[in-house]
Design a protein that fits this description.
The protein has 240 residues and is α/β, with parallel strands linked by helices. It has one domain (5-158, 193-238): Rossmann fold (3-Layer(aba) Sandwich). The protein has 7 helices and 11 strands. It has a 7-stranded mixed β-sheet with strand order 3-2-4-5-1-8-9. A 4-stranded mixed β-sheet has the order 6-7-10-11. It comes from Drosophila willistoni. Pfam families: Peptidase_S51. It is found in: Cytoplasm. Its EC number is 3.4.13.21.
């Protein structure tokens, strides 16, 4: 898996910034690493594909990058094989994964990213499907994919938009931590809680936390650990 070239964003939007603006330097670093000029956008996590693609195009074109929507291609698998970079956007993770299965794109994307090194950008749901499974999404299962198994571009799970419990709240329902800990208790697999504005950059067998906030790792043994920005997370790529 040494060909991996990934940018896994917690979100496309961050308070006080325009769409994708907070991640511009990260995106451009990835694009420049492979001389990317045109990005193939996968809009399947939202209902209006044209509108969603236009949103991404309006963000990236002023930076000098063209954007094409995968939904406009007669042969999606062929379009992916010819892509300079693949960007899978956020929305509902269950809808996104079901559509990838329906179009038989799971294995083509895996092979292109893991074997040929095509750059992959995921945001929110697009980050969820890049991981081992979608068990740790925040979304509701409005549709049912044939499996929760995802692209497995990395061998661990991520919880995008991670938000720690508010110690001052009067809310007595389950916290995000409790829901993630429940997954860990059943599966004994780690989950990385990515706070807003953070991301994981993966190049080959090296992974690094980017952004201004720490990430919280829920370990397979039930313990947790905070990792500061710029931390080396490469050990997560060694999980079986």
């Amino acid at each position: 898996m040494s060909a991996r070239n990934l940018l896994l964003l917690s979100s496309s939007r961050l308070y006080g910034h325009g769409y994708l603006e907070h991640a511009r330097s990260q995106l451009e670093d990835l694009f420049k690493s492979k001389n990317v000029k045109t990005v193939l956008f996968v809009p399947f996590a939202l209902r209006d594909y044209d509108k969603y693609t236009a949103t991404v195009r309006n963000a990236l074109e002023p930076w000098g990058y063209a954007v094409e929507g995968l939904h406009t291609k007669a042969d999606p698998s062929k379009a992916l094989s010819e892509a300079q970079a693949i960007f899978v956007g956020g929305g509902n993770t269950f809808v996104l994964l079901r559509t990838l299965y329906e179009l038989q794109l799971i294995e083509p994307i895996r092979k292109l990213v893991l074997n040929q090194g095509i750059p992959y950008i995921g945001s929110s749901a697009g980050t969820n499907v890049a991981t081992r499974s979608i068990h740790t999404t925040n979304d509701m299962p409005v549709v049912y994919p044939p499996s929760f198994n995802a692209l497995a571009l990395v061998p661990f799970n991520i919880n995008p938009h991670y938000l720690e419990p508010d110690a001052n709240t009067h809310h007595k329902g389950e916290t995000r931590d409790e829901r993630i800990e429940e997954f860990v208790a059943y599966h004994e697999l780690p989950v990385l809680g990515l706070r807003e504005g953070t991301s994981v950059r993966v190049v080959g067998n090296h992974a690094q936390l980017l952004g201004k906030l720490p990430a919280k790792l829920f370990k397979g043994n039930g313990s947790t650990e905070e990792f500061a920005p710029e931390s080396d997370l490469s050990f997560l790529l060694q999980i079986d």
